[in-house]
Amino acid sequence: MTEIPTGTLTFLFTDVEGSTKLWERDPEAMSRALSRHDELVRNTVETHGGFVFKTVGDAFYVAFSTATEAVSAALDVQRVLLSEEWEETGPLKVRMALHTGEAEERGRDYFGPTLNRVARLLSAAHGGQILLSLSTKEAVGDKLPPEARLRDLGQRRLKDLTGPEHVFQIAVPDTLSSFPPLKTLDARLNNLPTQPTPLIGREREVAEISDLLRRAEVRLLTLTGTGGTGKTRLGLQSAADLIDEFEDGVFFVALAPVSDPELVASTLAGTLSVSESAERALIDTLENELSNKELLLVLDNFEQVLDAAPLVGELLSSCPGLKVLVTSRTLLRVYGEYEYPVRSLELPDSRRLPPIATLRRYEAVRLFVERARVARADFYLTTENAPAVAEICARLDGLPLAIELAAARINLLSPQAICSRLGDPLKFLTGGARNLPERQRTLRGAIAWSHTLLSEGEQALFARLAVFSGGCYLEAVEAICAVQDGYSVDILEILSSLLDKSLLRREEGIQGEPRFSMLETLREYARERLEASGEAEETRRLHAEYFLGLAEEGAPELRGSEEAKWIERLETEHDNMRVALSWTLQSAESELGMRLAGALWQFWDMRGHYSEGRRWLEEALARDGGAPETRARVLEGVGWLADVQGDIDRAVAAAEEGLKLSAQTKTQTNTRASFLRILGSAAYVRGDHRQAARLYEESLALSRRASDERGVASSLHQLGNVSSDRGDYEEAKKHYEEGLALSRELGDRALLASTLISVGAEFLLQGDHERGARLNQEAAEILRERGSRGHLQYALDNLGWAALMREDPERAVSLHQESLALSRQLGDKLVAAEAMEGLACWASTRGDSERVARLFGAAEALRESVGYRQEPREQALRVPYLAAARARSAASAWDVAWAEGRRLGFEEAVAYALKIGSDG
Predict the structure, then answer these.
(1) Are strands 59-64 and 51-56 parallel, antiparallel or unpaired?
(2) Euclidean distance between CA atoms 326 and 312, whole angstroms
(3) Phi first, then psi: what are they for 239, rounded to 5°?
(4) If you count Cβ atoms within 10 Å of the first and of the last residue's Cβ in the chain, which end, N or C, has fewer?
């Protein structure tokens, strides 16, 4: 019998690409070809010392003692297969993957994360391709075959959702070397979160869920089950496996921090980077964004926002390419919903245990062993501990969370000891609420059992941590949880202990700072313990005061050199801010809530949380009391957020109320000036340029008297816009340049970028293409650096026109394509129309008159839909290209193409324009 390799091994996995179609086309020929394939692969790998420990269909799983032999074997197999005559089936394209690591050997088979990793690496490859992980590349070192070379394919996220893998491709001159992009998560748009550990078992469930979602009639699939059954992890893995099926991506929407159904739409919009529109309701904006996309949404923890179920139904009705995968403890009860109940993990019969080699194949046992090895690396399933492990899994009903909690104790207790301690808590479960499912009572008992093993200090901190939503940093834990009622705890030591016991998770936060979070099921239990402790109100008050302090510290920094850091920090803590707002506005601490809302409105404005921000601000205003200065700050936020949404009446009402309040109090001059700018903006939008100019001039005078340079710069910028629209270009230029100089001095990068775009556009229209391009390039760099997509489309469009006017059409088309793609994501029809006309002008330089007419027709319709009329100088830029194209076209053909363009919808027009650009 062949000796089985042990220790650190290199695994080679192979399979035949497209084998299913070959079997369907000619089963007999494929059977003969596969027999030959198996003979060639086995003989070759065994020549190099490989141990074939498993074959499944056309797949080979081989272990090698050295990475060098594994690589040589893979190359030789490819050579042999390529040189073979495959007359009946055509060449068999075999993909291969190699990964090096340790694995547990049982019954001449191998188990463990290393095997999972190489399997996922194989799934990323194409027929004829050989992929290596970083561990294999390092194990080979400089001992590659002389003719071989490595191509660095970079860091790639494999579909097991764990950390990224550095992937390499190996090739030699006589094998294939050019392949399509790897089939990894990076190949499609997605935000699927990285998981700390691989999914154990659940292969059947993942396959069944994937097959269901591939069916045309299944648009909404809900994974149901109690907390702790692993619905979220199962949904994520299914989504990862399906990512190649959805052209426009897969997106995970975490609803655990959201308790208000009204926030679901804005949460969806935030996840999908959909900007709220001033002209339409958010649901309409979402429907418009998704109407022509092939996209999968994973909505996690929907049970607490069930009243938002109709929103899901509306999106599915309006968006034919959309599919939704939901995890929830209850069904949504939406028409067309399919249910997939998530069962417990597969369990052995603890009374009649199978041999260890067979026992290791049960999902629950596999999970316990793998998670136990995280806590204690030398843990293995043995004849002595196998009965206890099986008993633990059985007593915990195969619930993943419960098993993980038990396995985390392996660093302190043997499986036998863990098993004995499960007795009393599980008996207690039978006295739980009879209307709860048995599994839920079992999970509750498992958590309670873990809780009883905690020290007094650990229990206190565990309960207090329930106050956080969306995680927390150590600083916040120390400020809120360290001391209450004279009883202090050692935060660092206890956090470490809770992490070890799997009651807490550690994640990578800003600049590598550790961030701590709880599974939602655990947080629910901790919240109950907090209520029972009598510390709940005091803990919530400390929580609200801490995050108010953070928000008030960050508010002035949002317009300074540290803005990027503070935007990221406030975004990270947004869920905690929501919790604090909710508690303060529903308790006797409404003044705290009003201050918090007033401190956050600029953050909501910058990040596009318009509807949610207005909701909190309006709720704060509805509370009695509040210092006049605080109410004025809240009114300022309402005014600006209403303005950006196009709710001009509310913006005016808020600004007028704020001005009256300012007259009665010591409200700062810069706040009064801000109210005047809100009123000026309203007049500007309504076309009353004289009134807008008067209000902006008054705001400017107030800001100058108060030495409020930011207010001065903002007023000058707005006056420049008004002057430009009134045709006073010299006056506009003067205002712009003064505002620009001030913005630079202040370091207010958001204001600076906006001003640079406006000033740059003015120079372009005046024919100074070089200066206009330089200013817009600076704006684009600022916006990219800030991670801000809003306004970037303007800069890119201006740069496109600058390139066109400087007779660089290829550069122009690239910029207009980028601007157009971004405008589609933001729902910005105005800039999209501008970019389409830029692409039309480019098409004119190539002599394609039909495309020119169709694109100009589409752009014209888009501009009409937003009520914008081009000024003469903008039209003049397009005239030469338009005239040249029309002169080359018959009048009837031109009119037909123009009309066709006007009939295109927004998504259709964008898709057509981008295709035109890419054809060249």
Answers:
(1) antiparallel
(2) 10
(3) -65, -40
(4) N
The mean per-residue pLDDT over the stretch 398-413 comes to 85
- pLDDT of 423 strictly over 70: no
- Residues 113-172: tens digit of each pLDDT: 899 899 999 999 999 999 999 999 999 998 888 888 899 998 888 988 888 889 999 988
For residue 731, how many C-alpha atoms fall within 13 Å in the half-sphere facing its CB?
11
Instruction: Tell me the C-alpha distance between 13 and 118, whole Å.
Output: 7
Nearest to 668 by CA among 656, 659, 677: 659
What DSSP line would sit under 594-661, residue for residue? HHHHHHHHHHHHHHT-HHHHHHHHHHHHHSS---HHHHHHHHHHHHHHHHHHT-HHHHHHHHHHHHHH
Closest CA to 867 of 722, 693, 644, 687: 687
Sheet order of strands, 505-508 included: 472-473, 514-517, 505-508
> Which amino acid is it at 68?
T
Report the alpha-carbon distance of residue 641 to residue 71 in Å, rounded.
60
The residues pairing with 11 across neighbouring beta strands, listed in sequence order, are 63, 99
Query: What 3-state class would DSSP assign to 331?
Result: coil
Query: Would you state the structure tokens that stand for residue 697, as one six-digit string?
Result: 């001039």
Residue (of 826, 839, 855) closest to 276 by Cα position: 826
Per-domain residue ranges of the chain: 8-181, 203-341, 356-451, 454-534, 775-919
Angle between helices 400-407 and 386-395 (to 10 degrees): 140
Find, among 42, 37, 45, the residue nearest to 17 by Cα. 37
Which residue is it, tokens 């090895």? 373
Quick one: CA torsion of 821, 826, 830, 832, rounded to 10 degrees? Answer: 10
Q: Domain 8-181 sits in which CATH superfamily?
A: Nucleotide cyclase, GGDEF domain (3.30.70.1230)
Q: Token match 């509306």: residue?
A: 314
The alpha carbon of 321 is separated from its chain's Cα centroid by a whole number of angstroms, namely: 20
Q: How many Å apart are CA 107 and CA 860, to the nearest integer?
A: 71
Above 70 in pLDDT, residue 550? yes
* Cβ–Cβ under 8 Å, residues 340 and 209: yes
Cβ atoms of 291 and 248 within 8 Å: the answer is no
pLDDT (tens digit per residue) in 273-299: 888 776 788 899 899 899 999 999 999
Say how many C-beta atoms besides its own lie within 10 A of residue 806's C-beta. 13
HSE-CB for 810 with a 13 A CA cutoff? 1
- Give CA–CA dist 371/233, Å, rounded: 15
Nearest residue to 715 (alpha-carbon basis) of 747, 746, 749, 751: 751
Report the range of poorest mean pLDDT among 432-446, 549-563, 599-613, 760-774. Answer: 432-446
Angle CA(345)–CA(351)–CA(354) in degrees, nearest 5? 70
Tell me the C-alpha distance between 579 and 532, whole Å. 20
Distance CA 455, CA 503 (A): 13
Handedness of CA 61, 66, 72, 76 (dihedral sign): negative
The separation between the first and the last C-alpha atoms of the chain, rounded to the nearest angstrom, is 62
Question: Per CATH, which fold does 454-534 belong to?
Answer: Arc Repressor Mutant, subunit A (1.10.10)
